[in-house]
């Protein structure tokens, strides 16, 4: 037992003292921070600078749609090209786009169509980053470290996504749009250069190339993901969770606070902050626990708890009750996602990790707008958001039971 404890200590030490992992972590933080700042700045300029609130959706659709398509293609590139060079290309390309916008803002009032085109390009290059990182991470850390490594990265992403708009809001009040885009550009370029120094545990892995046609590899990724029982189960789980959680809960938070609790914008910020705090805390806790056994079963149990949490949240009578429950629900989000991501990285073939991760991420990301649309449609029929939350929680719990018995490999998988 003493030997096992010493081995675990070595694993922990090597993770946080690994130069390659730290470079990957920093690049991820900078990428997420720049994306959240970029979206905030463009949104604020469209609303406050141009006064075109109705056109804001066009800019955001351009960014998210191009990012989704790019993630699918990026999964293939990550498996057939050097992922560190892909991350370098993603960061530096976005840095160039940011410096271009800085120049335009310095010269004139930027029209909406320029922002839409720039957002589409930014999303396209940004979509290459995540598949490359997901493909690279299992080659930087040991299999036993994947859960802890993913929790560290996901926790940092949540902090970056939360702090990005706050930081951009403070900076825009004391400086110009041009200066802000220059800062983003410099950070991205520095992070892009730094990621080139990431070394994999497999010396020749980074030089791997494939002569297979791009279309064939993309098709192979789909077939491989669907034919492997465990990966198929994980794909279905991810889609179900995002569909039943995203619209009713994520989109429903401000509606619930304003319509059900009669809260103010300040009180909504408390609830939204509670969700973010819970997600950060959940990432830290799952990293400390570092699950290695029965991760599939734990994920299913926690999804069931998510459904119960949303059910209880829908019955909140006060703001502080809502905050307390949403912190708990927020903790469960990374507690579900991180073990599932780690399982995919551990079980997928090393030459297909990029494609599998990009397909699963894109599948879940693609259903978020659909979940928003369905929630909006039901709200338009006059159904209140608390009822929608209750109705969504029930099929989510039923899905957990069905998946538990339909995919025994999922509940047995470590």
Automatic annotation (TrEMBL):
The keyword Cell division does not apply. It is found in: Cell membrane. It comes from the Bacteria. The chain crosses the membrane at residues 21-42, 54-76, 88-106, 180-198, 233-257, 269-289, 296-313, 319-341, 362-381, 387-410. GO terms for cellular component: plasma membrane. The keyword Cell membrane applies. One of its GO terms (molecular function) is transmembrane transporter activity. InterPro entries: MFS, MFS_dom, MFS_trans_sf. It is a multi-pass membrane protein. Keywords: Cell membrane, Membrane, Transmembrane, Transmembrane helix, Transport. CDD domains: MFS_MefA_like. Residues 20-410 form the Major facilitator superfamily (MFS) profile domain. PANTHER family: INTEGRAL MEMBRANE EFFLUX PROTEIN-RELATED, MAJOR FACILITATOR SUPERFAMILY ASSOCIATED DOMAIN-CONTAINING PROTEIN. This is MFS transporter.
């Amino acid at each position: 037992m003493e030997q096992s404890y010493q081995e675990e200590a070595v694993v922990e030490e090597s993770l946080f003292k690994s130069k390659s992992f730290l470079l990957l972590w920093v690049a991820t933080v900078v990428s997420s921070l720049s994306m959240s700042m970029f979206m905030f700045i463009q949104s604020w300029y469209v609303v406050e600078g141009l006064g075109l609130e109705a056109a804001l959706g066009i800019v955001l659709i351009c960014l998210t749609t191009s990012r989704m398509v790019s993630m699918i293609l990026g999964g293939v590139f990550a498996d057939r090209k050097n992922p560190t060079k892909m991350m370098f290309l993603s960061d530096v390309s976005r840095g160039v786009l940011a410096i271009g916008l800085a120049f335009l803002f310095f010269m004139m009032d930027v029209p909406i169509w320029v922002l839409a085109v720039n957002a589409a390009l930014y999303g396209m290059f940004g979509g290459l980053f995540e598949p490359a990182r997901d493909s690279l991470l299992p080659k930087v850390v040991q299999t036993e470290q994947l859960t802890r490594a993913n929790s560290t990265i996901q926790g940092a992403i949540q902090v970056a996504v939360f702090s990005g708009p706050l930081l951009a809001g403070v900076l825009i009040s004391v400086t110009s749009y041009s200066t802000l885009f220059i800062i983003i550009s410099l950070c991205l370029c520095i992070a892009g250069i730094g990621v080139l120094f990431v070394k994999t545990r497999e010396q020749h892995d980074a030089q791997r190339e494939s002569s297979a046609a791009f279309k064939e590899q993309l098709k192979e990724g789909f077939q491989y993901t669907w034919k492997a029982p465990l990966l198929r189960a994980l794909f279905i789980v991810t889609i179900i969770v995002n569909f039943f959680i995203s619209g009713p809960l994520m989109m429903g938070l401000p509606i619930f606070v304003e319509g059900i609790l009669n809260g103010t914008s300040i009180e909504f910020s408390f609830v939204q902050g509670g969700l973010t705090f819970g997600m950060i805390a959940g990432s830290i806790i799952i990293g400390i626990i570092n699950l290695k056994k029965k991760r599939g079963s734990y994920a299913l149990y926690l999804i069931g708890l998510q459904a119960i949490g949303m059910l209880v949240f829908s019955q909140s009578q006060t703001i502080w009750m809502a905050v307390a429950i949403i912190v708990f629900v927020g903790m469960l989000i990374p507690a579900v996602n991180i073990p599932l991501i780690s399982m995919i990285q551990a079980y997928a073939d090393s030459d297909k990790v990029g494609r599998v991760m990009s397909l699963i991420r894109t599948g879940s990301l693609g259903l978020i707008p659909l979940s928003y649309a369905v929630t909006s449609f039901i709200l338009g029929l006059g159904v209140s958001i608390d009822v929608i939350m209750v109705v969504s929680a029930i099929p989510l719990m039923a899905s957990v039971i069905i998946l538990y018995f339909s995919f025994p490999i999922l509940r047995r998988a470590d």
